[in-house]
Amino acid sequence: MQCDEDNDGLANFNLNQAVPQITGSDPALSAPVFFRSFADADANTNSITNVTAFENTVNPVYARTQNSFGCVAISEVTLNVSNNSIVDPAMPLEECDTDANTSDGFFNFNLKDKESEILNNLPSGNVNYFTSMQDALSGLNAISDPNSFANTIPYEQTIYAKLSSGIDCYGIAQFKIIVNSFGNALNDEDAVICLGTPKFLDAGSGFSTYSWNTNPVQNTQRISVATAGLYSVTVTNAAGCAGTKTFDVTASNIATIASVSVNDFNGGNNSVSINLDPASIGDDYTYSIDGIRFQESPDFDNLASGEYKAYVRNSCGNAIPYNFFVMDYPKFFTPNGDGINEIWNIPYLSKQPKAIVSIFDRYGKLLYQFTGNNSGWNGQFEGKKLPATDYWFRISLQNGREVKGHFSLLR
Hints:
By secondary structure, the protein is mostly beta strands. It is about 5% helix and about 40% strand. The protein has 4 helices and 33 strands. The chain has helices at about 20-25, 40-45, 115-120, 135-140, and strands spanning about 1-5, 10-15, 35, 55, 60-65, 70-75, 80-85, 95, 110, 125-130, 150, 155-165, 170-180, 190-195, 200, 210, 220-225, 230-235, 240-250, 255-265, 270-275, 285-290, 300-305, 305-315, 315-320, 320-325, 330-335, 355-360, 365-370, 380, 385, 390-395, 400-410. Strands 27-33-32-28-29 form a 5-stranded mixed beta sheet, with no helix packed on it. A hairpin with a 5-residue loop joins strand 28 (about 355-360) and strand 29.
């Protein structure tokens, strides 16, 4: 007996369910082979191949088996259909997604909670549960533990409850199981509060109730906070499920640039580091030395000599820019009278007017000295032009640092 879901007289049968009756569970008999006619069974030709989903377009069918001596027996199997008179449960089976603090749409259900409703005014029988109609009709892959079934499709899935007596199907009911989940709506958030400016925390819309862990308790979707800390809100949705969202609020402010550490006179491989005042708090500062390109690191490399400004910003605002200079020495000059690159000097050394630059020949003879506010050296000694070659220098900066190197005079 198989259930006829659409009452058209046709249904899919799992013919293997008749095997215990055909063989009497005698292990000495071979597994039955099914045929559409007695003649085919007798001739052992044209056997039925889809035995687990055979539609009763012919009725009866015939099962052929034999014993260990090769004696053949043929059984007639009558395929009857039962009109499905089971009423589907009116309401789905719903649960709140409260397991393991995740809102993934999976939960354990007790499917038997719907059994009394399925069996209402029906004869007693066995109810087995399946995840597809085909499995319910064939009797295959029944849910092994209906008292604790974890849905295999997130959020919503259809369950098929089959009422049967032995291998006979009386009817199949179906109902939905629904996991009421908050999804990503209750993911924890980090927030930054700028000192002196209150911050609004928003739990999101669409919930039935709100309860914040403030003193006093607030029951609104949004609250305003003025201090750093952990804030949490418990919400309920239309299904009565409760969930909690946490906001980790940290304090920050606009940075103050205390200084810029400059490592220069490195032949174009100069570097700087932007130093913040210790009162600057916040871990989302970004740094720039041109006001256009910002980076997370306060360190900048491969800088040419020049005048720069340091910039620091975060979500609270921008620091006051800080001027600084990177100095380096030219590697050559050409005092040949064409008016181009005639003087060897240190760009921006005028910012250190007391710095002293001494120039020597290869033998260590002092040829010329000038201070930071001087224009530089023209390549002459006592009014005479010196030959094209390499010359050495020593720079004594105002902070006591000494820089030594050499450069070329080209004519």
